[in-house]
Specification:
single chain, 85 residues, alpha+beta, Mth169, Chain: A, 3 strands, elongated
């Protein structure tokens, strides 16, 4: 079976986002938007893969995300998974 996964990785709310703060502070200068109270950056990982069942695909995606795609000390992650025809 073929699957498409999208994994969203974000810093935990308790972790300061220096890159996001830098972008937020420059939004007004670049775009003229002055009322941005919060801006946080994250990662989106798109992946197509094959697996024998949806249950196994979820298990493998969870393991990959938890061990490799996200630093679980400071980041949380979620995913979307769809079967491709």
């Amino acid at each position: 079976m073929k699957f498409k996964a999208t994994v969203f990785v974000r810093l935990r709310a308790s972790v300061s986002d220096a890159a996001g703060n830098a972008v937020r502070s420059n939004v007004g200068k670049v775009c003229g938007i002055t009322e941005v109270s919060s801006l946080r950056l994250g990662k989106v990982i798109d992946m197509d893969f094959e697996c024998e069942s949806k249950e196994k695909a979820v298990k493998e995606l969870y393991q990959l995300s938890d061990m490799m795609l996200a630093n679980t000390v400071i980041e949380d992650w979620t995913y979307e998974l769809e079967e491709l025809k």
